[in-house]
Amino acid sequence: MPYARFISRWFANVPNINLGIMQSFLPERGKSVKTFHFHLGFLPYIESLAPHIKDNLFTLTEQYGVEYMGLDYIFASLVFEDRYLKSKERFKERLDSLGLSLSIFEELREVGRSFVDSCFVKLSPYLEKAGLIGFSCSHYQLSGSLLLCSKIKSARPDIPAVFGGKDCSGTFANDFMRAVEFVDFTGTGECEITVDSLLDHINNKREPVYNVLYRDGKGKIIKSPELPNIPIKELPFPEYDYDEFHISKSDIILPIEFGRGCPWKRCSFCPDESYNILCQVKSPEQISSEIDHYQSISADLCNYFILDSDALKNRESIIKTALNIGEKNLNFIYAEFRAEKMDREVLEALKNMGNWVTHFQIGIETFSEGMLRLMNKGVGALKNVEVLKAAAELRISVQFNLFTCFPGMTRDDLKENIRVMDLISHILLMDNFSIFPGEFYLPPDSPVFLDTGKFGLIKSGESIFSSVFDSFAMPSYSNYPYPYQFLNDDDQYGFSMALRAKVEEIKSMRPADNFMVYTDSPEGLRIEACRDGAATSHLLDSSKKAIYLSAVEKARDIEKLCEDSGLQPGDIYSLLDDFESKGLILYSYDRKSFLSLAMKNHGSNISAA
Q1: pLDDT tens for each residue of 40-49
Q2: 519: phi then psi, degrees, rounded to nearest 5
Q3: Phi and psi of 549, rounded to 5°?
Q4: Does 605 score more than 50 pLDDT?
Q5: Which overall architecture, per CATH, does domain 512-608 show?
Q6: What SS3 string covers 83-107?
Q7: Superfamily designation of domain 248-276+295-471+481-509
Q8: Is the pTM of this model over 0.85?
Q9: Alpha-carbon Rg for the chain in angstroms
Q10: What is the pLDDT of residues 187-216, one digit of tens each?
Q11: In the chain, which segments carry CATH 3.80.30.20?
């Protein structure tokens, strides 16, 4: 069903990969399947609406964010209509704060209702032979799925329904099953083996069910045994009924898995561990074969969305994949990468993989070592800077988030964050970077959520979604965050304002007035630096030059540098401390490694200055 961000090409042009896999996987098991990617038809559906209704729908869903009041709320007001009718004053208050009215919301409710009616008409001919109805739910699309499911169950209450995906995962799944009686099963893991075994059970009740929650004969919620999923390398390529989509093949963005699951799953702000997804990676040969399969269907199928919580599970796989597909002239829309396995070779491979239509995302989050430990990121600030410096020099488009506040964050963390940002401002101001400063939000099932006392938070008793309904049966709902207060709320507000101001300051800098470049010459290594128009120059002799250049592309371990150079640690540190005092290097937090911050001079910065 429609995603909350239905206008974005990421959601309006990308078919659902889980349905695509079902369409190819189940027939291999002797079972028939019909899939409906109704989210692809929502934007074309509303094109015929009156302009003011379209404008209000776009405003509600895009301008104010999916968490605060969006498309999912419209569908939810229809699913839980009794609660909505008792909660109109709460809806009115939230809408008033957005400059919208309840009467506008009522118009939009009719749009949601009529769209779901049209979906029901399209699938009705298939209900006669249906043995199971399945909904894949993520990115705030649970309510639309529930609304359509309720219509199907009203017509055919005998057909069981299963829901799966991040919108109904984790501890919320229990509340979901208790509150929504027309849903028979909720998946607790990956869909392939779950749906396959569920169909076996429907055909023969003596067959067990796996990886689901269900109700027993007395209405008690039961968690079934778990069964490992089919290895990702053994799954068939997803299949789609392209002619049924409302977009041309050249506009379709095909989701493609390089792997599944996060290899870390320990970040304190992330609920990934609750999704119960095994970390796996596809081989380069499998990835290139899958792309060949799509292109054998149509050469127009050349746009790809890398659907993976960390596509860089195996750096060698990325490098080989780039060699395999780099000549195919493919367009890549998005990908996420953790920083710890990234280096210059990986970045060059990504650059050569195809055309990056949008920036890919690297999980940076902060430049404060203390905050990275609070977040349990598994990576240090020095590595974050190393990766961004390489991306800047290679002119690779990157976006990253920057937490402006975080549970347990201190004034010292803020100072360290700003100190490093000042030191590397010549890197961060590059126009191939997009920095998104943002507040911390509290998703269910994250380590912070599960132990707010440890992290210095006071959380609300219900999510921001649930709070708009009076006496709502589910305190959590979908992926919606919970309102909270920091124990040091005033300090955190100040931290947030200071970091936002620093990002804006860096964005406003002129590269001609802010740079740090090095040039090799017979006299030695010359480093030209400029900060806000104030220029300095440093000339390093041969011994200093060797040390500086040893860490100019990759952070250097100082103990190993001593071994390789034959110099004593005291002599090395004396030189490095001098470099640090001039702002030319960045130490790791334990001072066991360092990175040289000057970038290779190609003439552009110096001439501009």
Answers
A1: 999 999 999 9
A2: -135, 130
A3: -70, -20
A4: no
A5: Orthogonal Bundle (1.10)
A6: HHHHCHHHHHHHHHHHCCCHHHHHH
A7: tm_1862 like domain (3.80.30.20)
A8: yes
A9: 27
A10: 998 999 999 999 999 999 999 999 999 999
A11: 248-276+295-471+481-509
